[in-house]
């Protein structure tokens, strides 16, 4: 409240209690002020902030509009070697250990105890069910002679993995567990298939023999990203009695490239291991193509896991 003038001097405002001072701050009837400001002062402040935030909103909207003009909805701006993912796909495996052991790659169970191995059976079934439940839009039946036409993708038949099926407990009730492998998706990546004359020296002999056999019997079915699973150490090699691949020993080339077409699902390979019981076995699986490099530390082109059956 303005001080009262007495002659040439100003008298201080009268003293008020806390409650009276607060009420006067909320509404001063003598000066028509609310919270220390008049109506016109509040109107000017409100108008300023409306204009300020409207301009700020318009500025950021214009920035995002320009930014989104540089992007495409169905494909990344930067692809292959120009992107963060690069052009060297990784390999993954299923089933994974429980979330409590998120860093673990150990598949360990007792084949004689159903309540012990059923986790792995159910986890594998959950993984395969995700393939069955995905929309079938744009999916067609493919073969080496009939790759998918433009705008279509190849389906995956879960029944093709027999005997790695739920009815067979995926082999977990025996010392013959099924491990499923899949290649990570990279937009527009196409495999460069090995031909018989240029097989790499470090490729396992068993895989080389398989490719040569395919070449002689079914030469039109060798356009495959081949897969091999081997024990990492001599003892591990000895403890793996056998391994069988379903439906084939790799990923057919007609599943590539990944173009983000609705309905696309990555191909998978089931590997059924027959192993010695009671020992820990270190296994490394690799994908083989001329443009896949193997780097265990960066998890490129291969995957490591341990297998132990009691």
TrEMBL record:
Its main location: membrane. The chain crosses the membrane at residues 46-68. GO terms for cellular component: sodium:potassium-exchanging ATPase complex. It is a single-pass type II membrane protein. It is found in: Cell membrane. PROSITE patterns: ATPASE_NA_K_BETA_1. Signal peptide: none annotated. One of its GO terms (biological process) is sodium ion export across plasma membrane. It comes from the Eukaryota. One of its GO terms (molecular function) is ATPase activator activity. Keywords: Cell membrane, Disulfide bond, Glycoprotein, Ion transport, Membrane, Potassium, Potassium transport, Signal-anchor, Sodium, Sodium transport, Sodium/potassium transport, Transmembrane, Transmembrane helix, Transport. It holds the Pfam family Na_K-ATPase. Belongs to the X(+)/potassium ATPases subunit beta family. This is the non-catalytic component of the active enzyme, which catalyzes the hydrolysis of ATP coupled with the exchange of Na(+) and K(+) ions across the plasma membrane. The beta subunit regulates, through assembly of alpha/beta heterodimers, the number of sodium pumps transported to the plasma membrane. This is Sodium/potassium-transporting ATPase subunit beta-2 isoform X2. It comes from Drosophila hydei (Fruit fly). The gene is LOC111600444.
């Amino acid at each position: 409240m303005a001080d009262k003038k007495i002659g040439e001097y100003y008298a201080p405002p009268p003293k008020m209690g806390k409650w009276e001072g607060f009420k006067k701050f909320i509404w001063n009837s003598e000066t028509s002020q609310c919270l220390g400001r008049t109506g016109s002062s509040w109107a000017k402040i409100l108008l300023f902030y409306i204009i300020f935030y409207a301009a700020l909103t318009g500025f950021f909207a214009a920035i995002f509009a320009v930014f989104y003009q540089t992007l495409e909805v169905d494909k990344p701006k930067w692809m292959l070697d120009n992107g963060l993912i690069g052009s060297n796909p990784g390999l993954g495996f299923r089933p994974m250990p429980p979330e409590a052991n998120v860093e673990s790659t150990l598949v360990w169970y007792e084949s004689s105890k159903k309540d012990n191995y059923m986790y792995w059976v159910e986890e594998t079934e959950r993984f395969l069910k995700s393939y069955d439940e995905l929309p079938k839009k744009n999916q067609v039946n493919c073969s080496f002679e009939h790759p998918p036409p433009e705008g279509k993708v190849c389906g995956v038949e879960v029944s093709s993995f027999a005997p790695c099926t739920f009815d067979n407990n995926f082999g977990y009730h025996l010392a013959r567990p099924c491990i499923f492998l899949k290649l990570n998706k990279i937009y527009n990546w196409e495999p460069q298939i090995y031909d018989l004359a240029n097989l790499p020296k470090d490729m396992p002999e068993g895989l080389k023999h398989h490719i040569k056999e395919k070449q002689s019997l079914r030469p039109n079915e060798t356009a495959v990203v081949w897969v091999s699973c081997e024990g990492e150490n001599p003892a591990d090699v000895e403890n793996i009695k056998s391994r069988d691949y379903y439906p084939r020993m790799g990923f057919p080339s007609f599943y590539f490239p990944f173009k983000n077409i609705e309905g696309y699902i990555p191909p998978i390979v089931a590997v059924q291991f027959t192993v010695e019981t009671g020992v820990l076995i270190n296994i490394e699986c690799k994908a083989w193509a001329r443009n896949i490099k193997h780097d265990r530390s960066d998890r490129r082109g291969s995957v490591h896991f341990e297998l132990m059956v009691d």
